[in-house]
Amino acid sequence: MERTTLGDFELTILSDGNYYLDGGAMFGVVPKVLWEKRITPDEHNNIRMGLNSLLIRTGRHNVLVETGIGSKLSEKSQAIYRNQAMLIKNFESAAISPEEIDVVINTHLHFDHCGWNTYYKDGKPVATFPRAIYYAQEGELEHAHEQHERDRVSYMTDNYDPLIKSGQMKLLKGDAEVVPGVSVKVYPGHTRDLQAVIIRSGGKVAAYPSDLLSDTKHLDPTWVLGYDLYPLESINNKHRFYEAAIPQEWLVIFTHDHELPWAYIDIGEKGRPVARAIRQK
Ligand SMILES: [Zn+2]
């Protein structure tokens, strides 16, 4: 667990543990001889990924960004992803309970971003955060329901449909302020309606760009995920994100980096974006 402050807010990284994804799927058209210099795949070509949720304590609200993979995967899927479902255990070390969460934000509805939205109680999906209002983009839910053959494996209806039915999940149409100081901004590319979370307090800014910039191995604008539905838009939106994040020194939180959950971004010697760890500041 890592913690820092941003103006009047307190930010805490809460991990759901690690999981493994195919290296080729994560790096798309980037040749393996290049990406394996940054991360070493195992004998099945899988690479280790993190599952970083962000807890924002604003003083008035406790906001949770992303809920990891969760505990509802089938045995077969668990054997593939080797995930650990640790998020709720890690709540204890942060001295917070699921009942204290006021707001949950899902950047998109892929299974590895909203898994702890619900858990199975007597075989039925119930809200893990009983008092929270959950937020997702309307267009993202529409796409999830479409069950397109390209990416239907990434969507598990038990992560969101029960919350829609109960009225606990609210749908946003584009950019919005969710609570004072915490807003969402849409950056299409990974999915049509992927939303980043932007946090502002005391003149400081932090951002959770989710799969627009999943980890520090993907800082180059053209190194986009093979999973992305609109890779050209991912590239353009990474540039758009950097145009604000670099000069304004945003603290960037990486959803899938298992080593460095947050960092500032600088332009390095070769003119490429590089991560600067928070403690070096
Ligand atoms: Zn995703």
Annotate the secondary structure layout:
Layout: E1 2-6, E2 9-22, H1 23-27, H2 32-35, E3 46-57, E4 62-65, H3 75-81, H4 87-93, E5 103-105, E6 118-121, E7 124-127, E8 133-137, H5 138-146, H6 161-166, E9 169-172, E10 176-179, E11 182-186, E12 195-201, E13 204-208, H7 231-245, E14 251-253, E15 262-267, E16 273-277
The structure holds zinc ion.
Residues 108, 110, 113, 190, 211 line the site of zinc ion.
Order of helices and strands: EEHHEEHHEEEEHHEEEEEHEEE
Helix content: 10-25%
Kindly report the oligomeric state of this protein. single chain
> Bound small molecules, which ones?
zinc ion
Relative strand content: 25-35%
**Contiguous runs where pLDDT drops below 50 for at least 5 residues:** none
- Count of helical regions: 7
**Please, what is the average pLDDT?**
97
Shape: globular
Distance between the termini: 19 Å
Strand arrangement across the biggest beta sheet: 1-2-3-4-5-8-9
Radius of gyration: 18 Å
The description of the largest β-sheet is: 7 strands, mixed
Strand tally is: 16
The class by helix and strand makeup works out as: alpha+beta
Structural overview:
There is one protein chain. With 281 residues, this protein is of the alpha+beta class. It contains 7 helices and 16 strands. The chain has helices at residues 23-27, 32-35, 75-81, 87-93, 138-146, 161-166, 231-245; strands spanning 2-6, 9-22, 46-57, 62-65, 103-105, 118-121, 124-127, 133-137, 169-172, 176-179, 182-186, 195-201, 204-208, 251-253, 262-267, 273-277. It has a 7-stranded mixed beta sheet with strand order 1-2-3-4-5-8-9. The radius of gyration is 18 Å and the shape is globular. The structure holds zinc ion. Residues 108, 110, 113, 190, 211 line the site of zinc ion.
